Amino acid sequence: MLNRPRSRSWALFALALVAVVFLVLHELGQLQPVEDLAMVVIGPVQRSVASLVSSVEDTFSTFRDARELRDENRQLQTEINQLRTDNVRLKELEAENATLRDLLRFARSNPTYATLSADVIGRDPSPYLSTLVINAGENRGLKPGMPVITGGSALVGRVLRVGLRTAQVQLLGDVSSAINAVVQNSRATGLVRGQPDGSLVMDYVPQEEKIKTGDIVLTSGLGGDLPRALVIGTVTKVFKYDIEMFQSAALQPAVDLNRLEVVLVITNFEALTAPSK
Amino acid sequence: MSPSPYFTIPFLLIVAILQSTAAPRLAVYGARPDLMLVSVIVWTLLAAFRMRELQYTGEPPSLWRGINDGVVWGFTGGMFLDLLSGAPVGLSALALMIAALVVGIFAVGIAGSTPILVIVATPLGTLAYHLVFLTGLALTGRPAFWSVNLSRVILPSVALNLALIPVVYLLLSPLNRQTERERLHW
């Protein structure tokens, strides 16, 4: 019993000695053949085990990567959504900016007009009437009859009814709308009226006047209720019959009256008046 | 007795706003979905059908009560529409009330299955509404363009309303039952 620890010590000493001998032999290069032989046996096993370990690691790595990718994907998706929202907002702002720039250009080029801008917030619920609701009313000094325009000096219509904070605008295409007009080239005068389908017709043009497709029709300013030279539309077809007293023309409105978003109300302008005696 | 104003007024106001904002964008040629008209027709039909059912119970209510519900909706919804429209104030209300009256009398007076009554009542109500509205416009000095509007607006509206009515019927049916339950509790 007492000898056992001593023999174990000797065994340990012997093993340490072997290790030292191997170390010395290795340093002397005497162990190389043994090492080579061992590697021939161990090498493939090592490679297989390494490959297996690598596969296992890859598998875990794939899970980890997938989780990371999922997180990254979620984050990117959020960013894309944000960017899309920003993009839509910017496009809206760009469109609004273009509209406002047009309106500003009109206001600058017509300094004698007092104008105010308003957003279109609704349309007439009835299919028989062409009116708009804008977000300006008595609070901003609107009165019935004031002309309403949009970019490029295009006439939209006239204020029909005024509320405290909103107003109804009768569009050119309304069947009750009638505007004194003049053809830009020939100076032929007539009356532009709305039709049930929202289109425009210029009536009461004397037979001897020359009008043709493509002519631009403007407000004549006659009557004093509208400024002169606001664009109404372009002649698309002329109806001239010898048996009738007047000729008429179909017009294409200068703006799409169904797609208005911002308008300019002319609150004051110098009207054509009869010369005083 | 009329339906609860806490439900009727906000609901019809929302319908009127939708009619003024969304419906013009859904226009097919000249015709647009008449959201308010369809709502009034459906509510009148639901009320009329309910009154007909109650006729078979112990203490039958007046048949006119069902029609009355629709007329009240027509008046309220019409006034909201008139506020948003360039038409003479009261014209939409009058046209919708008459449409509700026509639909109500038809639904109460004619026996038949619900789908058939709905299919027949919708064109009747639509025609009544548009005829009264156009007559009102003509009487207040606006050109009515009867034949153009018949082909461009009225007939397409009948088709659009027929397509719309099942959806509105399904939406309003539970609301109508709920309103009636609340009314009975009162």
Explain the layout of strands and helices.
The complex is a heterodimer of chains A (277) and B (186).
Chain A: H1 3-28, H2 32-109, E1 114-123, E2 131-134, E3 147-150, E4 154-162, E5 167-171, E6 178-183, E7 189-194, E8 200-206, E9 216-219, E10 231-239, E11 246-253, E12 262-268
Antiparallel strand pairs in A: 1-2, 1-12, 2-5, 3-4, 3-12, 4-5, 6-7, 6-9, 7-8, 8-11, 9-10, 10-11
Chain B: H1 5-21, H2 35-54, H3 63-84, H4 91-109, H5 114-139, H6 146-185
Helix pairs in contact in B: 1-3, 2-3, 2-4, 2-5, 2-6, 3-4, 4-5, 5-6
CATH classification, class level of chain B: Mainly Alpha
CATH architectural name of the domain at 114-268 in chain A: Beta Barrel
Quickly count the helices of chain B. 6
> What is the 3D form of chain A?
rod-shaped
* Structural class category of chain B: mainly alpha
Structure report:
- The complex is a heterodimer of chains A (277) and B (186).
- Chain A is 38% helix and 29% strand.
- Chain A is built from 2 helices and 12 strands; from the N terminus they run H-H-E-E-E-E-E-E-E-E-E-E-E-E.
- In chain A, the strands form 2 sheets. Chain A has a 6-stranded antiparallel beta barrel. Chain A has a 6-stranded antiparallel beta barrel with strand order 6-7-8-11-10-9.
- The relative contact order of chain A is 0.11.
- The model of chain B has no long low-confidence stretch (mean pLDDT 83).
- Chain B has one domain (5-179): Arp2/3 complex 21 kDa subunit ARPC3.
- Chain B is globular and about 50 Å long.
- With 186 residues, chain B is mainly α.
- Chain B has 6 helices and no strands.
- In chain B, helix 2 runs antiparallel to helix 3 and helix 2 (35-54) crosses helix 5 (114-139).
- Chain B starts with a helix and ends with a helix.
- Chain B has helices spanning 5-21, 35-54, 63-84, 91-109, 114-139, 146-185.
- The chains are: A alpha+beta (277), B mainly alpha (186).
- Chain A binds chain B through residues 121-129, 131, 133, 160-161, 168, 170, 174-176, 196-197, 258, and chain B through 16-17, 19-21, 23-24, 27, 30-32, 36, 81, 84-87, 92, 133-134, 137, 142-143, 145, 148-149, 152-153, 157.
